Amino acid sequence: MGIKLENISKSFGEKIVIRDFSIELPDSGVIAMMGPSGCGKTTLFRILAGLDKPDSGRIISSNHKRLSAVFQEDRMLGGVTALGNLIAVIGRDRLDIAKSWLEYMGLADSAHLLPREMSGGMRRRLAIARAMAYGGDLLLLDEPFAGLDADTRENIYPYIFSKNKSCLTIMITHDLDEARKLADQVVIMDGIPLSIRG
Questions:
Q1: Statement to judge: residues 9 and 62 lie in one domain
Q2: Structural domain of residue 77, as residue ranges?
């Protein structure tokens, strides 16, 4: 067992987003979570990341101690270069790793740029590079490829998923083709409160 969610419920004021939600996830592999906007996927993401607490229920994790995430927002350090953004989370002693991930994401020539000097797609790739360089046992991806064109996605897919066979990756996506291509298992979330359809 990797992560087990038991009877998770979460409300914001009078709005119930998740009610008695349970699922058991494996220790490794890629799980794609899909569903309509507003169904609670990002709330579940935030609960798994420890940013929100469920109102009730519990999460049991066997060995996921180190978590890395790509949020819907890029969350860059605005006054730091692209390379500096990676060094800030992994340390200067891992400079070679930071440079490698910039290269994998097609950003080797942009290492000196500040986030405001980069396009939206470049910032998105930088956010992915930073999460991947940090690594960990659990990788959470919330619409990680949003805003990237098809060719760019195809170029970076192999680096992300071939290098994470030993960890559990949970990816929120609205792209069924993407989910089928990348995920070992696709979980369809449907309705409010959140529930599993299949």
A1: yes
A2: 67-135
